[in-house]
Write a structure and sequence with these properties.
Helix content: 40-55%
Distance between the termini: 35 Å
Strand content: 15-25%
CATH superfamily of the largest domain: P-loop containing nucleotide triphosphate hydrolases
Radius of gyration: 21 Å
Shape: globular
Largest sheet: 5 strands, parallel
CATH class of the largest domain: Alpha Beta
Structural class: alpha/beta
Strand order of the largest sheet: 2-5-8-1-9
Number of domains: 2
Order of helices and strands: HHEHEHEEEHEEEHEHHHEHHEHH
Number of strands: 11
Number of helices: 13
């Protein structure tokens, strides 16, 4: 089976188990294809944990869930050196970061030192304990979640760490029809004793994932659309040139990582649709998820209730499509 068919089959399978969150499923696959990480924000009970669990059950790799709390220590993520008195030596015991898929649940509840340890793993694909560094797997994806309701006792993620997330996905409530389907699915699952019933028959191998990552880089992207991506990102640094009403609403625009992120994410989105080229609609589809967490809004914009999504909409509408 061609690699693209395997991914499309996985997306279809996940949609049967995670009802009403097709965008989240698609963005998880995009992050997997782009060798990136994603930050998911939504109210409790919207299948965020279930989504990453279904993905982990569908690929040949290990999964670990980390519940971030204020008393968490960096060693709880990275592992630590344990003294062996029988040998008189210290032996490193791997922590939960030594898995392929990581769910960092409520990441903003952990203090800065813990977030820093996770940041090294995300960016450098290694962890450092003492004077030694340990490499992580080539297949390594972090899906971090944030609860937008409760802010008391949280530690907001610094801009440097937010910039390391390829995508920031906002998860909303399902429709009335989807809510009914969720009830039926829940009842059917409760009747089954075999946990493997909903697992796909063919697991996606690490080799197939690496092959797919190379395939999306071969998609055709015209020079005009490359310039279009650059224009979008550069406009976040001086939005007044695109629309005078946006002047002074952004303190800091997106970094060059945003250019690379839109390029890769648009390629992955187009590839999952079965296309061999990237169109402007693919770029526009992923632009919000790549940019929304990379914009630092001014106090005036926040006071007026203006969101990053609103500003991105205005920028996209103000830039001519090739």
């Amino acid at each position: 089976m061609a690699v693209i068919k395997k991914f499309q089959k996985l997306e279809s399978h996940a949609s049967e188990l995670i009802i009403g969150q097709s965008k989240l499923i698609n963005r998880m696959l995009i992050a997997l294809l782009c060798d990136g990480h994603l930050l998911v924000e939504g109210a409790p009970g919207l299948a965020k944990t279930r989504a990453i669990k279904v993905l982990s059950d569908s690929i040949e790799g290990s999964f670990n869930r980390l519940q971030f709390t204020p008393d968490l220590l960096p060693a709880d993520l990275t592992g630590t050196e344990v003294y062996r008195p029988q040998n008189g030596i210290f032996e490193f015991r791997e922590g939960p970061l030594f898995h392929n898929l990581i769910l960092a649940d409520e990441i903003n509840r952990a203090p800065a030192k813990v977030q820093s340890a996770l940041l090294e793993a995300m960016e450098e694909r290694q962890i450092t304990v003492g004077d030694k560094s340990y490499k992580l797997s080539k297949l390594f994806l972090v899906m971090a979640t944030q609860n937008p309701i409760e802010q008391e006792g949280t530690y907001p993620l610094p801009e440097a760490q937010l910039d390391r997330f390829l995508l920031h996905v906002e998860v909303g409530y399902p429709t009335i029809e989807d809510e009914k389907r969720i009830l039926i699915l829940n009842r059917n699952e409760a009747k089954l004793e075999n946990d493997d019933f909903f697992a796909p028959k063919d697991l996606l191998s690490e080799k197939s994932i690496l092959e797919a990552r190379n395939a999306i880089l071969d998609l055709h992207l015209s020079d005009d659309l490359e310039q279009y991506i650059v224009n979008i990102v550069v406009s976040t640094r001086n939005p007044g040139k695109v629309n005078s009403e946006l002047d002074g609403q952004i303190l800091y625009g997106a970094s060059p990582r945003a250019c690379m992120g839109i390029d890769r994410a648009a390629r992955a989105y187009a590839w999952l649709k079965g296309k061999d080229y990237v169109g402007p609609e693919d770029i526009q589809e992923v632009a919000h998820d790549v940019l929304r967490h990379r914009l630092v809004l001014s106090f005036e914009a926040e006071a007026d209730g203006i969101s990053s999504n609103h500003i991105i909409d205005r920028i996209l509408s103000g830039i001519g499509v090739p």
